[in-house]
């Protein structure tokens, strides 16, 4: 778009080559018609959008640009995980998982790992009528991600669930799922559509030995 110098930056604010995922940011100055601040809160504008990457306006979106200069928005930056020093987009992994013919819905979250820092864990909901062994499907999903993204993703864990926990507006509660997997204290989101879905997810993760028992906080 004319007037916007969009770039993909690493954690040190250095531009990344095509195909590598980083933070999407716009090099300053912003073109005319862009809001110069937040109403009545200049400091929040600077700390939220200008402080992380000096000389850039950060969108807080993670993505990459291809060799032709097309930008792909994959996730929010808090959905980018660090696997053994490699910044990987869970959104990009979800895009690959969703290609499987038996997968109706999916979510990928980063969970804590003592050796790699974080590793991705996938959750899949199968299409109605699928009666193949879930272990077989999960293995195929792992293979898909390995072929599309590579071994660097360390994508080895996939769990079949009946449904994904969502807000009433349809947003998947990835943050809460991650807290459960990490054994962190968590609160029942006020916007959740069905609280029972988190109990179901917790049960599946516990069966796989992924989560330590923890108590939900209610305060």
Average pLDDT works out at: 88
Helix content: 10-25%
| Assembly level | single chain
Stretches with pLDDT under 50, minimum 5 residues: 215-219
Number of contiguous helices: 5
Roughly how many Å apart are the termini?
Answer: 46 Å
Order of helices and strands: EEHEEEEHEEHEHH
Explain what you see.
27% of the residues are buried. This protein is an alpha+beta fold and 219 residues long. The strands form three sheets. The protein has a four-stranded antiparallel sheet. Strands 7-8-9 form a three-stranded mixed sheet. It has helices spanning 42-50, 90-97, 134-149, 174-182, 196-207, and strands at residues 6-9, 22-27, 56-65, 71-76, 80-83, 86-89, 103-113, 117-126, 157-160. The chain starts with 5 loop residues before the first strand and ends in a 12-residue tail after the last helix.
Structure described in brief:
The protein has 219 residues and is an alpha+beta fold.
Which properties best describe this structure?
4-stranded antiparallel beta sheet, disordered C terminus, alpha+beta, 219 residues, 3-stranded mixed beta sheet
């Amino acid at each position: 778009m004319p007037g916007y110098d969009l770039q993909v930056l690493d954690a040190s604010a250095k531009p990344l080559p095509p195909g590598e995922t980083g933070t999407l940011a716009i090099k300053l100055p912003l073109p005319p018609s862009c809001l110069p601040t937040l109403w009545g809160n200049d400091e929040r504008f600077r700390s939220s959008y200008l402080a992380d990457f000096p000389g850039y306006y950060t969108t807080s979106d993670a993505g990459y640009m291809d060799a032709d200069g097309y930008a792909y928005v994959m996730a929010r930056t808090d959905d980018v995980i660090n696997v053994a020093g490699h910044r990987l987009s869970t959104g990009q992994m979800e895009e690959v998982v969703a290609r499987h013919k038996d997968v109706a819905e999916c979510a990928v979250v980063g969970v804590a790992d003592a050796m790699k820092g974080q590793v991705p864990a996938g959750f899949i909901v199968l299409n109605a009528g699928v009666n193949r062994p879930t272990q077989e499907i999960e293995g195929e999903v792992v293979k898909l991600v390995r072929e599309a993204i590579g071994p660097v993703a360390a994508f080895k864990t996939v769990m079949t669930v009946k449904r994904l926990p969502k807000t009433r507006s349809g947003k998947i509660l990835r943050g809460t799922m991650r807290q459960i997997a990490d054994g962190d204290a968590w609160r029942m989101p006020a916007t959740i559509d069905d609280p029972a879905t988190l109990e179901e997810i917790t049960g599946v993760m516990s069966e796989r030995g992924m989560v330590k028992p923890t108590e939900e906080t209610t305060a």
